[in-house]
Specification:
By secondary structure, this protein is mainly α. It has a domain at about 35-205. The protein is built from 18 helices and no strands. Helix 16 (about 415-435) packs antiparallel against helix 17 (about 440-460).
């Protein structure tokens, strides 16, 4: 079990460093764009990004998941090339055909995604970004499962690097310029990724193979559609109830909340391959239960830390015009955590290859989020929308556990995990709405100090075994570095 933890930690660290570096560059990009655009323009910019991200994910057609499933059927390199090439050429052709068709209906599209015709001049660059983003997403997944970590990190971080440099060098950043840079950065990374994957690309296309891949991938298309639609439902409703500036503030809050995704994404990437390789081994169910408890504790504590520091982060990244966007942040952060815990709740259905049950869970969650948005958003605006997301995401989690327990028995510590999640959520709300000092820096120092004490107390209480091992490790480190009373190392 110790070896599993070390493997997960090692992979999480590698992906975390890579994704963290990418996220750090995005943090640098955020104030550049946020300060160059008006509040309303930032809202429209977010809508364009949501659109091309959603469409690009859709046109992968679940083939990233399907190829992964078929990849391990054989170690034959020729078979791997046939698998990759068939999927690669299919999604490339289909995405190019799709944007050609969409381009004939610009007015209808702008109306659908809630962008005024005044900003239509950026649409061609948004559409042209889609095929490149499709290829980047598909190839990124291939690199992940082939464990080509360097190629994976270059693909995931390259887009951000090539986006950052032109923004830093530009004398003036306009709305159109941002999307021109996005297009060229996506295209350049796609070209580099294709070069890295060239060993798998052959002049080959199998109709039989692509039908098999699509048959397996279809439920995952639905999973993606329901999942992404649920994620973006708040924006669909809030465009009707918030003014342009309020909508811009909300989208900025979402960008700040994405800081949590550094840990979530690194864990998600590392967890899948590890789970697939150990779930038939003795002790695996107990390992998963302990891991969920520790992960829930850590990710909830980190979310609380971000909430406490958010007023300073917002001032640094966006300036005074985004003041107030921290109020909604605890709800946004803690609404994201249940989605990461789906890694655990879906272990049984994934193990039994019951992908339709995962689809049903996501569809049910989508229905809950949609229904609650109709009820809560008109009354409570952004607070109602985020509360709807939180409740819907928890519903997905609960249904996942219910379906999975039939196929893979794990004795999760639900009471402990629910307490830690709820405790840090409440502390985050209190910290945001009841500051201890009017001075921004003093308030953060005081709240962080109190939070540190609470984290230590809960860790000792809920994880005594891990606490004792941590103390033993520190003692061993200290023993290997003895010092005399003057503080000078003894050799």
């Amino acid at each position: 079990m110790q070896g599993w933890i070390q493997k997960l930690w090692k992979d999480s660290l590698v992906y975390g460093i890579g994704y963290g570096a990418s996220r750090f560059l995005q943090i640098i990009i955020l104030p550049i764009i946020a300060q160059a655009l008006s509040l309303s323009e930032f809202g429209y910019y977010s809508n364009y990004v949501i659109f091309y991200t959603f469409i690009a994910g859709f046109f992968v057609l679940g083939l990233d998941s399907a190829v992964t499933r078929y990849l391990f059927d054989s170690d034959d390199k020729k078979y791997h090339s046939q698998l990759f090439s068939s999927a690669f050429f299919f999604i490339l052709f289909l995405s190019l055909l799709a944007i050609a068709g969409i381009s004939f209906f610009p007015s209808a599209l702008l109306n659908l995604i809630g962008i005024p015709a005044l900003y239509a001049y950026a649409l061609p660059f948004v559409l042209l970004s889609i095929p490149a983003a499709v290829l980047n997403s598909f190839i990124l997944s291939w690199f992940k499962w082939k464990r080509e970590k360097v190629h994976f990190l270059i693909n995931s971080g390259g887009t951000v690097v090539f986006l950052l440099l032109p923004l830093l060098l530009a004398e003036k950043i306009t709305f159109a310029y941002v999307f021109q840079v996005i297009f060229w950065s996506q295209l350049l990374v796609a070209a580099i990724s294709v070069c890295f994957a060239s060993q798998y690309i052959r002049a080959y296309f199998s109709r039989t193979l692509i039908i098999s891949l699509l048959s397996y991938g279809f439920p995952w298309i639905l999973v993606y559609v329901f999942g992404a639609s649920r994620t973006y439902l708040d924006r669909i409703f809030l465009t009707q109830y918030l003014n342009d500036d309020g909508y811009g503030l909300y989208n900025f809050s979402i960008r700040i909340a994405s800081l949590l995704s550094v840990i979530i994404t690194a864990f998600d990437i590392a967890f899948g391959p590890l789970a697939f390789s150990i779930w038939n081994k003795e002790g695996a169910p107990n390992f998963f239960a302990r891991l969920q408890s520790m992960y829930t504790f850590i990710i909830s504590a980190v979310a609380c830390c971000i909430s406490i520091a958010s007023p300073l982060i917002i001032q640094f990244l966006g300036g005074s015009k985004y003041t107030g966007s921290e109020k909604i942040l605890p709800l946004l952060l803690f609404a994201a955590i249940p989605l990461s815990l789906i890694n655990f709740s879906s272990l049984g259905t994934v193990y039994a290859k019951k992908s339709f049950l995962s689809t049903f869970s996501l569809f049910s969650g989508f229905a809950v989020v949609l229904t609650l948005n109709f009820i809560l958003t008109p009354i409570y605006l952004q607070y109602g929308a985020t509360l709807a997301s939180l409740i819907g995401h928890l519903f997905i989690l609960f249904t996942g556990y219910y379906f999975s327990k039939k196929y893979y028995k794990i004795s999760f510590a639900f009471g402990k995990d629910a307490f830690n999640f709820s405790f840090f959520f409440v502390v985050s709300l209190i910290a945001i709405h009841f500051p201890l000092s009017r001075n921004l820096f003093m308030n953060i120092i005081l709240q962080t100090g109190i939070l540190g004490i609470l984290i230590l107390a809960l860790f000792v209480f809920f994880f005594p075994h891990e606490y004792k091992k941590s103390i033993s490790l520190l003692k061993r480190i200290n023993h290997h570095n003895p010092r005399d009373k003057t503080g000078i190392e003894i050799h």
